[in-house]
Request: fold
Amino acid sequence: MEAISPWGHGLRIWLATSAALYAAFWLQLASPVSAALTVAILAQPRRGQALSRAMYRFAGTAVGGVASVILVAAFGQERTLILAGSTAWLGLCVFVAAYLPGDRAYGAVLSGYIVGIVAVANIALPQSVFITTVERVAATALGIAAVLLVNIGLGSPRVWTGLQIRLLAAADITRDFVRSALRDGPPEPARVAAVLSTVIALRDDARFIAGETADGANRAAGARSAIAALSGMIAASRSLAVPVASGVIAPIRAQCLAVIDAGGELRSAALARQLVIAPREGSTPGIVRVRQHGLDLIDATRQLQDGLEALSTGARPQWAASLPVHRDYQVALRDAVRIMIGFGISAAAFAASGWPATSTSLSLVATLCGLSAVAPNPAKFATGALVSAPIAIAASGIVRFVILDGSQGFVVLVLAMAPVTFLACYLMLQKTTAATGLLLNVFMVTLVSPYNPQTYDFQSFLDTAVLIGLAVMVLFLTSRLVLPISAQQRLRWLVRSSRQSLADIINGHRRSAQSQRARSDDRLAQFATWSAGGGVLPDIGLPSMLVMADLAVAAAGVNGALRQTGNIEATRNVRAAFLRADAAALDTIAEGLLGALPSITASLRPGTTRAIAEISAAAGVIRARRAWPIAALAKDAGGVEAVMKQIRIRSGLPYRVARYSATALILICSAVAGLLIWNVYVTSPWTRDGQVRVQVVNVAPRVSGEITSVEVKDNKIVRKGDLLYVIDPFDYAVARATAVANAESREADLADKEGRTMRRRALTTLSTSIEEKQQFDAAFKMARAAVADALAQRAQAEVNLRRTEVRSPVNGYVTNLLLRPGDYATAGSINISIIDSDSFWIDGYFEETKLARLRVGDPATIQLMGYAAPLRGVVESVTRGISSAQAAPSTQGLPNIDPVYTWVRLAQRIPVRVRITDVPSTVVLAAGMTCTVSIIEPPELNQSWLSQLWRRLLGTSRAP
Amino acid sequence: MHHDWNFDGVYFAPFVGQAAIALVILLVVRMGLGRVRFGDHVANAPLAEAGLYICVLAVLVLIY
Reply:
């Protein structure tokens, strides 16, 4: 496989991390760390691997998010049930993952541990689980976008080119195997297993290339077809290697060898087919088998060539093949139970400890358990975690508290993280330290914990470090102590499932020979791997596995062929013979079918021929059960370069220039398009953060008293002067009557006093004294003043009486009416609110960066949530001040300035008041409604269309 | 012009919907591109596809 430069890989991951962090800061995501973590986890060296993992990560996050919401919604009140449910869900996901190949397994496991992160972390705040889920999905999407963009833009190595090289090498090995099988007789089982393992190992990569390019699906189909063809070539050549007492075998072998040497070239293959089929007289089932498998070998060689071509050119291959895998139920179950026990015990232990950081720790345990479940070797992954944790803690401690230590520049942050990222990427590319590298990056991001603004709290760093240490210990102990699976056990399960599979096929389980062969090959390869890993079974070894596999494939072939011809009787006989392992009976059936061959209809002949061949093959396998000749195990992977030359892509200079110009043209268009999108969304004056505002009149009574009647209903319109409610008027009527009476009494007194005074004034000092005159005069004036006082009181009493009827001061709507007759109204305290229906306006909270592009008087459209028809308005004014969080005065009256500054500066929002000019008749305006406000920039008259376009693209401010 | 997407009470910025529609359009276009061997005619096919996506998105943003 081609080497991947650790520098290139490191650079890509570092750039993706930086981009994800910057975007997360800029978008003010609640958890920028999640975005960076996504990048760290998706840090796959090849494009297809990263794409595939990204896709399944997103799907897994979404499914896990939904599961968390459901779990919390169902057991919101009961923490134990949430923990138990999370554990069960995690186990289920791990179990399912054990049956899925590659990154699908990762997606399944992720949806399991997302529950650990979202549901368990929010166990104390069930109401916020939805928000957390949404934020999690947003952060994941951002991380994925960063990884994809960087992978695409920087041209990370592709999987399919590497696979092509490996496939060609495997084809060489297989061809050598076929040649030596045809020349030297049946190869020994170890060599068969070795070749099969080489071929099987290619399957994982074939999965990644489907999404890598536009024609990736064809390339993937080609790779699958080629892999299936290799497996078919191995099987057919092993059958042809079995000696047959007939002169026909030698020429057939020679034809096959010629086709192999010609690389499946079309004309020679067709010719060989003719020659293999041609002579018909003197047939035996053995000869039919040799002919049939000779054809299979030739067809497989052609299929290989076709598949390789499809892989390299992206054309659709002629043959389609699926590659099912073998998975052990026992292994899946134990993996699931192990994870459940590990997570369950730590959940119980942490919950019992009552430690506040429990939930964080549990999410870490869930993440690690999940990642270990999809690692090729969980025990090795646990060791990798154990090694990487202390390195990550030391490295991120240095980054955070020595290098950064209070600084707040984004460039400084990403530069400080770079060395650790590069180291992690280097380790990731080494086979033995891949898990260590991945986890080093994951732990480092967790520990540096970039946030906007960054905190430098050593205590929280230590807490996280301790949590990571605990989680790693839990993982390590679980992987070693809980239900460990020995190589021996795995071998035994493989044998058991091989037997089961053989029994199923003999009993009529419908499965194509190709599909059965893929499974059998997988089992054989796994058997060889675990045997090499130190497992030995006393009673059964690779030869027996091979016999079972061959029998199962032959039986699947027989069943399929006989089903096709509808020969029920033969099917029954074959089954009986299989169950007795009776080679002679199988031969008899085959001879019977062969004898009847000339008399059956032509359309059934190919199926019957196939059945005869497979029955004969099965008989041969049963007969030759323990006779494996020993052949030298030759490992020759040379000749790759020679085959590589077969495949050339068009690479002349003019063509290359054309391809680069086409790419450049598309990129220029997309750059303009990108600027346009940027302008529309980021710089053009619009905001989603708008609100409908209104003036509210708070009505309070001027007089106190019990309310006798309420004349309005809630939310009903009232006109200015309409009666709102009536306060019991009795007291005020009495007061007015008293005042009237008092006034009348004083007026009478005044009339009396006036008469007396006037009389005294007319008299001389002979009949009255000056003093007496003076006294009467004063009494008269006092009486007059008393009348004035009484009249004023009467007026007040009358007004008070009128004020028992409270009336609306404006046109508007009564709101939040809580008054009932019988309530006591206290003078001066508000008891009814009226929304002034003439006063609606819109406040748009615009980012300060957008203010340069709006003017007072600009028209605006206002889009309410829930209404399709927009409102229209005009910018009325811009608020001239908002409060500053920075300048709060301290005790001495000096401003208190926060020393912490943010990685990424965010624009403040300034309220802009928009007068509503036009409300569609269907819209019911209510204060507090959310709306989107877009300012319509009027075209500027004195500018050319070019400069206007330029201005639109760059989003620069308007001329004043 | 700017109208939020209502998904059962959860409102998304219009951009989210446009990005999704553009993705669907690109997937359809991609099938056709695979047929005409688009990858052979450009130097970096994924980069060119990303460029096409941005163009599709821009058209959606403008006409929406």
